[in-house]
Amino acid sequence: MKTLTLSMILLAPLAPLAADTAAETAHAGITPDQLQFFEKNIRPVLVQSCYKCHSSEPTAKVKGGLTLDTKQATLLGGESGHPGVTPGSVAQSSIYEAMTWKNDDMQMPPKQKLPDEVIANFKKWIEMGAPDPRENKVANASGGKRVIDMDEGRKHWSFQKPVKQDPPAVKTDGWAKTPIDQFVLAGMEANGVHPVRDADRPTLIRRIAFDLTGLPPTPDEVRTFVADQSPDAVKRVVDMYLDSERYGERWARHWLDVARYAESSGKEVNVLYPHAWRYRDYVIESFKKDKPYDQFLKEQIAGDLLKFDNKRDQASKIVATGFLAIGSKGHNNRDRRQFAMDLVDEQIDAVSQSMLGLTLACARCHDHKFDPVTQRDYYALAGIFLSSETLFGTYEQLQNNNTAGLIELDRAAEQTSAVSRISRAEVAELKTSYERAQTSAAEMQREVFSMTAEQRTKAGVNTFLRVRGSRDRAAEIKADMDLFNDDGTPRTLAMGVLDRPNPINSPILVRGDIKQPGDVVPRGLVEVLCAKGEPLNISPQSGSGRLDLAFWIASKDNPLTARVMANRVWLKLMGAGIVPTPDNFGTMGQKPTHPELLDYLAVTFMENGWSVKKLIREIMLSRVYQMGSTYDAANYAHDPDNKYHWRMNQRRLDAEAIRDAMLAVGGKLNFYPVDGSPVALMGEGRQGMFSAMRGDLSNKPYNYRSIYIPIIRDQIPEMLSVFDFPDASLVNGDRDTTNVPSQSLYLLNNSQAQNAADAFAQRIAQYKGSSAERLSYAYELAFGREPTTQEKSAISNFWMRFQQQVAKSGGNNKDSRDRSEFAALSAFCQSLIASAEFRYLN
């Protein structure tokens, strides 16, 4: 007998549904990422598939004594006596067991099992601790309408245009160097804290070097900066690193987090995207050249529609639209309409969070529960993206039911290719192989059609697999063949979007269900972000409307765009955002700690031509940025979270900076940019090759910068994942930072860490000088400073003990002594790499 039941799922995955009241997120301990995961992947399934039979609504027929519309009831479970959900344990969560259908007496929903992806999301949710913002208040399963007052909604601080205010007066004379300092110091004075002393010179240049290049400063750079006592010393070193080739690679990585960059689809099938790397290179080049941020955004939304100077410029703008094409997709979805709407939803979510700091995708199934955003707003945007053709590549194969073409760039654009030229003979061979594969597939299909029903039944699924396999082989060869022109030169293909010939408007889908279309809404913009009475709809003559959308988002009149980016830059330099929720400036996001400072930065950013470099420079030249991270008990008692910036936050380096620094100190980092990506060499759309690539990344000596390492969704290399690389399917403006044993174990035991230590040791061994001087030089490379007197004494004692140990072990011959000495030196270098000081900025 089935003791738990759920109504059959109608749509999966569904768009996010939000909670009914803002009070739900008063929950402590739920991070923004966890909240987003619940709203996007858990709540929609509960509402659509569970509440009919398991909610406290008067219309519901509660079965098995189980209600699932509050957190407490979900944890408690039903009449069976077993907990519904046990945070951290799927084995002790009866709801999860019922979803898997492994227990014949407890299966839900009873008529049709939930999709594997949905079940996997519930498993992930339970394992992360089942974060649930719902309180005792019963959720409104019926999706009752609320009236949104747009005039009232526009009063929210982030929906009003930023106004540049004069820096406030401060009581402490002489401390503030810049307007930024005045804003921050005024906050400190008003809240009973005082600034700590400035950072010492070696600490400061290390901070600047990592923040601008993602790499440690060289010993020569440190010595030069320490010796330069002129007033312009900091300015000179900041400008030096801003002009560095490495700057673009460092700051591009921050945007790629926000752009959810990856080279595969993720989800159940995980299809490869071998042309995604072009977008990565576009972002690097844009930051390197300090492309105005407003132009940067316009190109990513509508680069194909913008004016261009020449073929190369046109190609670059088209590649920029890869932003809209690289998102996660469910390629095995058999319903193309559902796939199209899910794709549009992903694009709306990415654009709104990354550029506007809003969760507009929450309005897919109903009006936004928190922000003044209606379903009309959502489907007005949906029409824009439905009127655009998203070209991401991949060929049809088993489990890949949704394919697309690619955009071919003009040969005159002289774009880099990831694959090498082949001969005309090899092109001819590919064509011949394709023709043979096509013939074989056709013959096999005719053979199956000629079989009797009894023969087909006897052959079973093997018949289907034979036909499918023959077709897939032909498609695979065709994909390889399409990479080349007839003369064997590689075609330059790009992911991106183009306008469809005939734009369309989208109907409002009731509860987000493609089977319940409602009123059709014209393509348009988000009402609350437009001035009252301003036209919202896109002109029918404007094509898809992407160009209008791009200029609207990148406008100085948009209240969010400049604020969101100014906050992102502040977060990366200071360790915490002025708005602590960088991807959510809506009512559920946190309020700014220094609203006047945020507006000052946003307006100054626009006044300076949307120059990211100038914004970075202004923050770095402030005394606030140059403070030390010294602990102060009195300050801590007033402000333990350092909300008022009385000291610099200590920050752990991100995964890429740790790996790159390990290679840099050993002199093994290859600065030559990679042409393309290893994914491009594996071929379009191929599945089942990820384990081989992971082996390559773990075993081959890839010594180029980490930004060029292939990013395959759900298959992130250990060197990155262990240090909190973000989920590449989600917009992420602020990475998690953990300090867990697996990180230390990686630095001690992983072969790449050991190889880095060996290279570091070889470099130290070749340094001219005494043993003590060589080991001191290791400190300079690793930490950007000389060892203290106490550390020098410890180094000397270590080396003396090592020599004594070698003598005791009988290592009298030179080879034995050399090997032992190198082993000790490598262990010493590895201890520096594994230390907290190597991984953190003070």
From TrEMBL:
Segment forming the signal sequence: 1-18
Entry keyword Signal: yes
Cytochrome C Planctomycete-type domain location: 50-111
Pfam families per the UniProt record, alphabetical: PSCyt1, PSCyt2, PSD1
Keyword annotations: Coiled coil, Signal
Span of domain DUF1553: 545-798
Ranges in a coiled coil: 395-447
InterPro entries per UniProt: Cyt_c_Planctomycete-type, DUF1549, DUF1553
Source superkingdom: Bacteria
Protein name: Cytochrome c553
